[in-house]
Amino acid sequence: DKLKEGLKKTKNAITERIDQVLVSFGKIDEELFDELEEILITSDVGTEATLRIIEDLKKKVKENKITDPLKVKELLKDELKELLSIGSTELNVEASPSVIVVVGVNGVGKTTSIGKIANQLKQKGKKVVMAAADTFRAAAIDQLEIWANRVGVELIKHSEGSDPAAVVFDAIQAVKARKSDVLICDTAGRLHNKKNLMDELKKIFRIIDRELPEASKEVLLVLDATTGQNAIVQAKTFKEVSPVSGIVLTKLDGTAKGGIVIAISSELNIPVKLIGVGEKIDDLQRFNADEFVEALFS
Ligand code: GDP
User: Helices 229-241 & 260-268, crossing angle to 10 degrees?
Assistant: First the structure.
């Protein structure tokens, strides 16, 4: 399937190298763990997550008195599944209305992901409204409009440079008037001006809380898998300016840096909820730890 296909390069970077090492080692020793550590660190799993994985592996090998290097693979799979299961991956859109605020820097696939999410929700019978609250760039509004038309949902927009919170306010009034189920808000991702971004998001959240106190709320941070460790840096900065309830990890297809999923789960402690596996409207999947690890080791 699409996930297996997309993870091919990541598989080359992680699993196939691990297989080679396990096959070439006759016994389990320090050197074997050093090799495994090297593979994980150099394939974007991140130092912190890698050290944790290796330490746990050593413990499990000892506890279970394992001597065959090939058995280490099953332990590693279990370890990864455990590490990647850090909370529900379901979008919190229980209440009607619900609000999803989408944050992330430009170019990571924010607009595309909003379109894909809107489409999925619509297919589930939900009435969706989009708010073009990235008013900083006219192109952002235009792009979102293309997706709104493609999916067939209403878009609330103002002109470039207008107050993002005012767009959200209008969108909420539209949601109330039409009894819509989900409002998805795009936002500007200008991380280089942290103070402005924080103020802008705070104002948006304040309006949502005031106008829709009963709504289910979700703040999705969109990260680009192809940026590897940079994605972690971005996420840490975003966590300083905004609450984040879930990650959308885009462009997992065709990158060798898929190990970043493990780093994100381990270092940020925010669940990856959705993964982008292509540019098309259906190329967004709910993240599932077991499926992901199985695809990686298939
Ligand atoms: P934004 O600036 O964050 O809103 O980014 P866009 O949504 O405009 O996406 C930037 C580029 O990334 C576009 O060419 C998208 O088609 C592409 N893109 C987004 N998500 C994915 C994905 O999951 N896989 C691939 N291969 N491309 C993606």
Answer: 30
Alpha-carbon distance of 93 to 150, in angstroms, equals 22
By C-alpha distance, which of 173, 170, 175, 164 is closest to 93? 175
Taking a C-beta distance cutoff of 8 angstroms, is the pair 130, 184 a contact?
A: yes
Q: Does position 113 have pLDDT exceeding 90, yes or no? A: yes
Crossing angle of helices 30-41/72-84, nearest 10°?
A: 40
The set of protein residues with a Cβ atom below 6 angstroms from ligand 1 is 106-112, 143, 250-251, 253, 276-279, 283
Q: 59-83, pLDDT tens digit by residue?
A: 999 999 999 999 999 999 999 999 9
8 A C-beta contact, residue 262 and residue 84: yes
pLDDT band at residue 291 using 50, 70 and 90 as cut-offs: very high
Please tell me the distance between residue 139's alpha carbon and the centre of ligand 1 in angstroms.
14
Q: Can you tell me the ipTM of this complex?
A: 0.99
194-217 burial string, b = 16+ CB within 10 Å, else e? eeebeebbebbbebbeebbeebbb
* Rounded Cα distance, 121 and 281, in Å: 12
Torsion of Cα atoms, 185 then 171 then 152 then 103, to 10°? 0
Q: Output the CA 280–ligand 1 centroid distance in Å.
A: 10
* Inter-CA distances, 166 with 55, 142, 156, Å: 51, 18, 10
Report the atom number in ligand 1 closest to the C-alpha of 112.
Answer: 7
- The minimum-distance atom of ligand 1 relative to the CA of 116 is 20
Q: Measuring CA to CA, which residue among 294, 243, 199 is closest to residue 7?
A: 294
Tens digits of residue pLDDT in 185-194: 999 988 888 9
CA distance 294 to 145: 37
How much distance in Å is there from the Cα of 175 to the middle of ligand 1? Answer: 27
